[in-house]
Amino acid sequence: MFESFDALLLARIQFAFTVSFHIIFPAFTIGLASYLAVLEGLWLWTRRQVYLDIFNFWKTIFALCFGMGVVSGIVMSYQFGTNWSVFSDRAGPVIGPLMGYEVLSAFFLEAGFLGIMLFGLNRVGKGLHFFATIMVAIGTLGSAFWILSVNSWMQTPAGFSINEVGQFVPENWWAIVFNPSFPYRLLHMVLAAYLTTALVVGAVAAWHLLRGRAQERAGIMFSMAMWMLTIVAPLQVLAGDLHGLNTLEHQPVKVMAMEGHYESHPDGAPLILFGLPNSETQTVDYAIQIPKLSSLILLHDLNAPLDGLDTIPEELHPPVAIVFWSFRIMVTIGMTMVALGLWSLWARRRGTFYTNRGLQRLALWMGPMGFVAVLAGWVTTEVGRQPYTVYGHLLTADSVSPIAAPAVGASLLAFIVIYFTIFGAGTFYILRLMGRLPDDDIEDDIEDNPIRTAGITPGPAQKEAF
């Protein structure tokens, strides 16, 4: 049934599908791990039981998301060998060690201390348990460091040479790891993860506040989440601006697609707010635009000239419509985050923060929007890089394995069925846990069932400690 399809297109769809599922979980666990460390630190500092209750509420959700993130990440690694073997052969000497460092220095760290964080509070002591929680948080940030380094090198390759068989050979590991776009991408992604977590925590808290349940615990969660939005969302706007300037310097074609600039503008480029990119006519139909504002934003000069896609061979154009709209989705959600943070600050000043149902409803609606923004940002980044896998050096069409379209299509169908079944069930269960009261005992559901697979069944005191 896939004979008429293009194997390259199917391989790209398959990787996009699996990476989209995967990025959802790290985008949440990176921020949630740090949130758990903050909660436990507040509990040790203040001795208030409420912080420990909230910590226990979220640590179970973290464990489930961490597990699903690991499973979905492993699948992507296999695709380098199945669908992208040429890319693996050519770029393997660079990206292979970087991904290995991620496993050795970051994943092992967070996985090694995860069990202590989940089950060791009354077994190893409060100090060591807090240390384990911090190590898990550092491990998640370490994973982001290495994965973003890999991706950034593919976007702005540096520190390499190409040998006689076309492989990218490392020459300077410092230049490879800290390539020109890496600091901006790392900062942008980590802040996005913190904002995504804040939106989820705020939505769960708003859910309980709107129903008049667990007021103290939900109120604390809501307050912490809104403070995060109030402070970090404007910082993310600044980080995004710096990232955009860096992209303009190193990947100007991507910025042309993001801005919808088919034509060059020698006397200042307009900012196109909305429109319908038309690659056939090389125009943006029904454009709503502000004259010269794009030049002001990108070059800080109203009259600064900006090149358009008319200066680039058409075969090197990325899919403009996808990049154009995904960028606007990301920016719109980001501005809404800033607005939500400002509204919460206004409500605090008015003394209506915990009773403002409009604010709580917006926070509830915004719960999944962090994930949407992260996905839109990655679509902008990855689709905007096309037609390259290693920007400027290796075309995507030259990176794919010599594999037939039916084989790729069959595995794609299998991924779709399995992912929606497994991760759908996991997500459903996570949403059920979020719907519980933050001080509910998670053990209640399994009180009469064994909680160990070996050894004696723990008594009541042991179960309470567990």
Provide an overview of this structure.
The chain has 466 residues and is mainly α. It has a domain at 26-179 and 436-466. The chain is 69% helix and 6% strand. It has 15 helices and six strands. Strands 1-2 form a two-stranded antiparallel sheet. The protein has a two-stranded antiparallel sheet with strand order 3-4. Helix 3 packs antiparallel against helix 5 and helix 9 crosses helix 11. 40% of the residues are buried.
The percentage helix is 55-70%
Order of helices and strands: HHHHHEEHHHHEEHHHHEEHH
Please state the structural category.
mainly alpha
Strand adjacency order, main sheet: 1-2
Which strand-content bin applies to the residues?
A: 5-15%
Low-confidence stretches: 441-457, 460-466
Mean pLDDT: 87
Main pleated sheet: 2 strands, antiparallel
The Cα radius of gyration reads: 24 Å
What is the global morphology? globular
Specify the number of helices: 15
Q: Which short descriptors sum up this protein?
A:
two-stranded antiparallel ribbon; mainly alpha; 466 residues; 6% strand; Cyt-d_ubiquinol_oxidase_su_1; single chain; heme; 15 helices; electron transport; disordered C terminus; 69% helix; globular
Task: Provide a short characterization of the protein structure.
It is found in: Cell inner membrane; Cell membrane. The chain has helices at residues 7-46, 49-82, 85-119, 121-124, 126-155, 173-177, 182-210, 215-250, 252-259, 293-299, 320-350, 357-365, 369-385, 405-434, 460-465; strands at 160-162, 168-170, 271-278, 283-290, 388-390, 394-395.
